[in-house]
Each structure stands twice: as C-alpha cells, then as structure tokens.
Amino acid sequence: MKKFTKSIILAALLPLSAFADTKIGVSMAHFDDNFLTVLREGMSSYAKTQKDVNLQFEDARGDVGRQVSQVENFISQKVAAIVVNPADTSATKRMTEAARKAGIPIVYVNRKPDEKMGNGAAFVGSDSLVAGHLQGEYIAKKLNGKGNVVIMQGELSTDAQRDRTQGVKDIFAKFPGIKVVEEQTANFDRSQAINLMSKWISAGVKFDAVAANNDEMALGAIIAMKQAKVDPKKIVIGGVDATKDALSSMQKGELTMTVFQNAKGQGQGAIDAAIKLAKGDKSQAKDIMIPYELVTPQNMKGYLNR
Amino acid sequence: MNQTTTVASLPATKKRKFKLPQEFSILLVLIGIALIFEVLGWVKRDQSFLYNPQGLLIMILQVSEIGLIAVGVTMIIIAGGIDLASGSVVALSAMVASSFAQVVGYDRAIFPSLGGLPVIIPVLMGLLIGAITGFINGAVIVKMRVPAFIVTLGMMVSARGLARYYTGGQPVSMFTDDYLWIGSGSNPVIIFLAVALFFHIVLRYTRFGKSIYAIGGNVQAARVSGINVGKNLIAVYTIAGVLSGLAGVVVSARAQTGQSGMGMGYELDAIAAAVIGGTSLAGGVGRITGTVIGALILGVISSGFTFLGIDSYLQEIVKGLIIVIAVVADQFRKKRAS
Q1: Residue B280's closest CA among B202, B223, B217, B215?
Q2: B164, B256, B310: best mutation site toward chain A, by most A Cβ within 10 Å?
Q3: Where are the beta strands (DSSP E) in chain A?
C-alpha cells in the first residue's frame, strides 16, 4: 500500500517537473577546446537569463558514435530541444532523423552539417569561408598585392581548416603577384606550428606573409621566427579566433591581424533558436549566421575583454 | 645527430670489440631514411636535406619532448610493463608548472599573488606532479596486482581530466623569462640528450638497471635471486612519471603556454620510438641508445616530409608504414646476423 501511494505521488510529480522547465540536451564535440569552452559558457550564461531553461551538457570527446548515443539518450529523456556541436559534420543525418521522428527540434552549432537544415533542424554559426576571405583580403592589402605566402592549415578534414584555407586562396587567386609557396598542417596546435615554421625557415623558404587557420598556429610561427632571428614585425601574420594571447601579441606589434569568431554569440544564438523551435515558432530561420569580425591593431582594444 | 650516436654507443663498442652493437642495424635504417630524403631533396628542391645545421637541430628539437618520455617508457617496457599515461601527464604537469611560472602583475594569472617566482619552483612542481602520477601507477600495479595497461589507461583518462579541471579548460600563459629560457634555442635538445645519457649509464652500469632487465626477463627468477621486484617497479614508474613531468615543463616553456590539450598522442609516439629502437614489448630487451635513434627516425621522417612539401594527407599514411617497415627491417637484419 505504501509503495502504491509512493508511486502515485511520484507519477504525479514527474510530469509536473517536466512542465516546470524547458530541458535542453547539449552534446559538445569537445569539452576541452578553448573556443568551444567559451561557446559552452555562452550557452549556459544565456540559459540562466531565460526563465526555467535547463541545460544538460555531454562531452562526445570527438567521437561520432558517442555523440549519436548521447542524442538518442536525450530523445528517450524527452527533452524539449537538442543542441549539437557536431563531432563530424558529414555524419549528422542519423541524429537529425532520430530527432525529427520524435518531434524534437535539433539545433547544430558552430560546425555546419553537410546535410540540409529545416523541418525541425537548424544551424547557428559562422561561415569559415568568410574568415578566410577577411584574412586573405587584409594580407593582400598589407602586401600591396605582391609577395610569397605560407599557409598553416588546421586539423585536416575539419570544415574550419577546409573553408578558411579555401577562403584565403579565393582571395589570393585574384592577385597574380601573390604566390602560395608552402601549405602544410600543424593541427591548430602551437607546438606543431613552431616545428613546422622552424623547418620552413631552415629549408630556406622565403615568405612575406603567414596565413594561419587559427591564432595558436600564428603564435607558434612567431615563436619559431624569433628563435631563427627572423623579425616577425617584418612579416604579415594572420590568425583566426582573437584569443587573449593573440591580442597581446598584436599589442607587441607581432601578429598583424586576426578574425573574431563570436563564440558567446553562437552559444546564445543556439539556445535562443532551440527555445523558439521548442515553442513551435515556425518563423525560425534554418541557417542563423553570427558574423565574423576583422580584428586589427586599430580596433583591437574593443576585443580585449570579450 | 652524429654526436648523439657516437657518445651513446661508445660503451657498447668498447665492451665487445668483435661484435657490432645491437643498435647498429637500426642506425642503418635511420641513415637509409635520411639518405632517401637527401636524394629526393636534390631531385625535388635542388637542395641538400642533411647539409643544414639548423635543419639537423630542428630534427632533434621537435622530438626532444617525445624523446624524454621515451627514455622512461623504454625502462618501463624493459621491466615488462607499459605506460599509456605519459601524454596526459605531460598536459597535467604543463598546466601546473605553467600556473607557477607566470609573471608579476598579470591580472589574469591563475595565482595573482604568486607572480615572478624563481624558476626552480614551477620546474619542481612539474616534476613533482609527474612523480606523484608515476608513483600511483607503480603502486597500484604492484600492490593491487592490476595490469599496467589498465592502470596507466585509467591514469591517462584521469590526468587529462585533471589537467582540464585545474583551470576549467583555460590556457595559461605570460611566463617569466627564466621559465621561457628552458624551452629556448637548443636547450630542449640538451636536456633530452643529458637525460638519455644519464639513464643509459643507469641502465647499463648500476645494480638498479640490471634488476630492471632481470624483472622484465623473468619475474620469478628475479624474485628468487633476491631482487625486490615491487620496490624496483615502483621506482621505474616514478622515474618515468618524472620524465613525463619534465617533458611537460619543456613543452610549455617552448610553446610559451600551458594547455590541457598538450601531449595528445605523445604516449604512442614514445612507445613507437622505443619499439623502433629495438625495445621488445615482451620485456627484458632494449636500450636507451636504440630509443634515441628511434626518436630521431620519427624526427627525420617529419622533417623530411615538410622539406619535400608532401601533401599533409599522405604524411600520416607513410609515417605509419615507415614505423612498421623500420622494425621489420631491423628484425630481418638481426635474424641474418644470428
């Protein structure tokens, strides 16, 4: 009898708690990535400002399989919406279909899935191609349309690496005087970028500009140049991300430019879209773009505390 | 490069004059790979790959952290164990050491009141973290009789987690000049080679070193002959932990930042260096000189690929092949020699 009453009370409470708040399941590709940490913080701080919104974070640790089961778990928990920072942009279909089948909206953030959005699925992020264009244009301007460029690529087969590299090349293709002399990966990693730049310098590669897919690699290139007695102030060096370290390097006059990707804005946008979709807002766009912003020594002050 | 091999293999040649040292065959593999790149260099770039002092330094510099770990891992493998935790311990010790190496008056410092400490403090903190993790590995393996693979796998996951938890994933930078000095110029190379030479001597000429070979060769026999197996094993894991900690200090000083993602995959590169260098995963066999050559092979391959401008996508495929081929070639030569 006691057991029976208990279960009645529990059964009565459960739907209540479910109605009380909008629970959103979030699966991140990586917890430890710097940029994604800012994005995650952007989500949770925005969720706190919203009434009765609860986030549950899971770390896929770069594994598509793990991410799919996390999403399946969210669906079986009947969350109000799902936010996914995809581990692999080409393998999102299974998650999208499972969410659509269960009638739960799914929002992808930061990394754009290869499949088409819409019908309960949306993307919030920035176009990496634009980051490449901004970087390419500024470097081309600084070089007066003439010079040798080396490209440091990020982790191969990520859309950020692919599109940022494509973006700078698109621009350089318009300047016959600009030549890409070397192009290799340093996996978005500073130590690997130090090694790569050291090897280029020791092999006698002559360059006037460095186009790096992210700031960490640009900073690695600068460290290697200083060790090899090449003055980084005489080289045009571009990164992406506008990290604290990058901005302090820019203050010293070493890093020439970077591109700010609004991680916080993407996090807020994703949760906002998830809430709207969960409420059945049909006017929600399929692709929500948070713009990239060019950061140079002239305007860097505004980014120091962001 | 030449300097390393002569310094390291001197004792070996002295001892048995009529027989080539074991590392000779793997040294030939190293020279062979270097010569292939030399020829391809002239063909593709019209430039020498090897006649380039700066380039040669970088070949060793880029593997000095992995080499440091590999020295410890070699000793562990000789003793019949394995260490999968080293890469994560690099990250953890890099984070902790970095947090004590920040300049005075940096408002975003981890410990704002502890800026500008003498360089010995962050270094000791890094080594201490390594020693603690290594000691835990050794103690659990010995006292609880859990396989080394499992214990160090657990440590690999936990240490990485702790490295992230320490600052909540935030990177640590703005170091004192003294700390940066550790990673500047050829200092990492000097540290690596000094450590390798020291442990080469320890392994070959001390009772401790001989005990390690005995334990890896046959635990029962070692125990019967009066060797304190547990104590020696814990010592080996602790030493390996200290060397991973040292690698964490060096890598953070060189990159001028401490990040929780550092050292990713280093454990496997270190094991590869040891195995290429002739250390047997079955235990009881191996030498530091071989491991140094193994690490150099990894460095030469990496430099060679960049030198030739080989497509990044192809590099990893070829690197994997070369690791296996290097070991196969070594086995083949050994068989013919015996």
Answers
A1: B217
A2: B256
A3: 22-28, 53-59, 81-84, 106-109, 121-125, 147-153, 178-185, 209-212, 236-238, 258-260, 287-289, 293-295
What chain A holds in terms of domains, given with CATH numbers, is: 2-126+262-290 (3.40.50.2300), 128-260 (3.40.50.2300)
Q: Is the pTM above the cut of 0.90?
A: no
A184–B184: do the CB atoms touch at under 8 Å? no
The CATH number of the domain holding residue B221 is 1.10.3470
Closest residue in A to B173 (Cα–Cα): A245
């393998």: which residue's tokens?
A91
Q: What ipTM is given for this predicted complex? A: 0.79
Provide the number of structural domains found in chain B: 1
Residue B105 lies in a domain: yes
Quote the DSSP letter at residue A301.
G
Minimal C-alpha gap between B304 and chain A (Å): 9
Q: Is B37 a member of any domain?
A: no
What pLDDT digit, counting tens, does each position of B71-116 carry?
A: 999 999 999 999 999 999 999 999 999 999 999 888 778 898 888 8
pLDDT tens-digit series, residues B1-52: 444 444 444 444 444 455 667 678 889 889 999 999 999 989 888 888 888 8
Which residues of chain A neighbour B309 with C-beta distances below 8 Å?
182, 184
What is the SS3 assignment for A118? coil
Residues of B in contact with A189 (CB under 8 A): 261
Instruction: Note whether residue B31 is domain-resident.
Output: no
Q: Is residue B143, in this structure, part of any structural domain at all?
A: yes
A interface residues, B as partner, C-beta within 8 Å? 31-34, 37, 153, 156, 182, 184-185, 189-191, 194-196, 198-204, 219-220, 223, 227-228, 243-245, 248
